[in-house]
Write a structure and sequence with these properties.
The protein is α+β, with helices and mostly antiparallel strands and 547 residues long. The chain is built from five helices and 26 strands. Helix 1 (2-18) packs across helix 2 (37-52).
């Protein structure tokens, strides 16, 4: 009889202690143990009868039930649970597990050791502080305080500061001298008709002409159709070139013997390139695919995989023109790059619904880019085809711009920040297909307009120490086309451009070099010489001053 009463008491304990008050028990479920609802209900009924029996035996059974419940697990126990944000301290939530037994160390020290349980695993990024919380059945006393050992948090890697340029001066240049125009050689009688053949370097040296006091020498050759050149800080010359009809191209390095090797390949239509000052890090402009978009790449070493710094730049009007172009680092250490228009003269995609195309953001502009973060902003706009850009020693910024297929718009620009240089509103420049001039825009002026179809390409402000002092900050421009005013290098001193309109109409910039086929870029070498690149045959010519 006593054994039966104990069995009933334990069964009542299981039901009473594992099923919270007010909980509806679903079949096959239960908190801590699984019971079927009918069986559980019968046990509740039996417990109720026992509790209502008013004699000593019932009282004894009730005492056994209460004793059994008192010795069971607590209804509420605190357990540390790691929150979603690992940068915050752990959050303590109530869970129905048993309370682990706290066994204090035999001897407490200033920094007692706490052995974590399986439910709390401190990591190097968390610094938890355990705060005892009283429960209805257990209040810890004399609980040791957990003081974790100091942890080492790695400091963020600082961003390398942008290198700024020290302005050059003409103090070391030779004295000023009168510089005449370069003469022109005869148009016929060369090994390949109007020009020497590709391997006829001696023939070219006879045909090329520069002013008296200057000399020309052959400095190398780039395969394919070269686009632009730039010097590395160590004095070596690099060039972008297009090697196939699909406009696949590469960056070439020119060796001491004048031969070119591939430095970085895998580009589509590479054009601009520039080395970040004080580093060997190269930046290259190209396309992601033949139809665009434009991309600015970073190359850290020879044959390294180019990494896109900025992509999705506006590109292109057609397969062989108008894309992301020349670039240069400014005095502030930021990168400046030209981005062409997506149209010739703002012609719309669908003339039936739109008269003119609206420029999209970053189109027909010069952009200023932080090479470390890739942040992009428009420095100036309204420039149809800024093929190349440069700074002089005073920080004045220049760009070439090419006109429409019908001619108007070939020019040299002195770029000011936030300036708008008219495109596509070129009616006043002679483009009758362009949109009418908007009167709500304050247009910046053109520094100098070239003859139509000269197609100005590369340019460089002379900041070397070899040429006469009066040529310091002169802007050299490569005029690419054979329209009678092209196929030459001209020099423009901005302060010598006539301001009188009648005089300006008759004025032409001084001619510095002739005899070229398709001059496409110029660059000032570390030794102060001027290097000229021809896109036909890829010959590189060096001009030195030797009075």
């Amino acid at each position: 009889m006593v054994s039966l009463l104990f069995a009933i008491a334990h069964r009542c304990r299981d039901v009473a202690c594992y099923v919270p008050t007010g909980t509806e028990i679903a079949p096959g479920t239960g908190r801590g143990m699984a019971w079927h609802a009918p069986a559980t209900a019968q046990w509740f009924s039996l417990c109720t009868v026992l509790f209502r029996v008013r004699h000593g035996l019932a009282t004894a059974v009730l005492a056994l039930v209460l004793a059994a419940c008192a010795s069971g697990p607590q209804a509420e126990v605190l357990q540390a649970t790691l929150p979603g944000n690992v940068n915050e301290a752990p959050v303590y939530t109530a869970t129905p597990t048993r309370t682990p037994t706290v066994t204090p160390s035999p001897t407490l020290t200033d920094t007692p050791t706490l052995t974590p349980t399986a439910t709390l695993t401190p990591t190097s990024t968390l610094t938890p502080t355990l705060t005892p919380t009283p429960t209805p059945t257990f209040t810890p006393s004399n609980t040791p305080t957990f003081t974790p050992s100091p942890t080492s948090t790695p400091s963020p890697t600082p961003t390398v500061a942008l290198a700024t340029l020290t302005p050059a001066s003409a103090l070391q240049n030779p004295p000023g001298a009168a510089i005449e125009n370069a003469s022109f050689s005869g148009p016929i009688g060369w090994s390949c008709g109007e020009f020497p053949c590709e391997d006829d370097v001696d023939g070219f040296l006879r045909k090329l002409r520069v002013p008296d006091g200057f000399e020309v020498e052959h400095a190398g050759q780039v395969p394919g159709t070269p686009q632009q050149i730039a010097f590395r800080p160590d004095g070596r010359l690099y060039a972008t070139t297009i090697l196939g009809i699909d406009r696949r191209g590469a960056v070439m390095v020119i060796n001491d013997d004048g031969e070119a090797d591939v430095y970085s390949g895998g580009y589509v239509s590479p054009v601009g390139l520039a080395f970040q000052p004080g580093t060997d890090v190269l930046y290259v402009s190209a396309r992601a695919a033949l139809e665009g978009p434009g991309v600015l790449y970073r190359v850290r070493s020879a044959n390294a995989t180019p990494v896109a710094v900025v992509d999705e730049l506006p590109c292109c009007w057609r397969e062989i023109d108008n894309q992301v172009n020349g670039m240069t680092f400014g005095p502030d250490g930021l990168l400046y790059i030209g981005v062409s228009s997506l149209t010739d003269s703002a012609e719309p995609d669908n003339p039936r619904t739109q008269q003119f195309a609206e420029p999209v953001p970053l189109e027909a502009s010069v952009l200023r880019i932080n090479p470390h973060t890739g942040s992009v902003e428009t420095y100036a706009e309204g420039i149809r085809h800024p093929f190349d850009v440069t700074f002089d020693s005073a920080g004045q910024f220049y760009a070439t711009d090419s006109g429409t297929v019908n001619g108007p718009g070939d020019r040299l620009l002195a770029i000011d920040e936030d300036g708008h240089y008219r495109f596509p509103y070129w009616r006043e420049l002679g483009c009758i297909e362009c949109p009418l001039t908007r009167r709500d825009i304050d247009y910046a002026p053109t520094l100098y307009s070239f003859a139509d179809y000269t197609l100005p390409r590369g340019l460089a402000a002379y900041t070397g120490a070899q040429f006469p002092a009066n040529m310091f900050n002169t802007v050299f421009v490569a005029l690419w086309h054979d329209n009678g005013s092209g196929q030459r290098i001209v020099r423009i001193a901005p302060d010598e451009i006539p301001t009188d309109e009648e005089v300006l109409a008759e004025w032409e910039p001084p001619v510095f070099m002739t005899g070229l086929i398709r001059p496409i870029d110029v660059a000032v070498a570390p030794d102060g010489s001027l290097v000229v690149l021809d896109s036909v045959y890829g010959h590189i010519w060096r001009v030195t001053y030797n009075p």
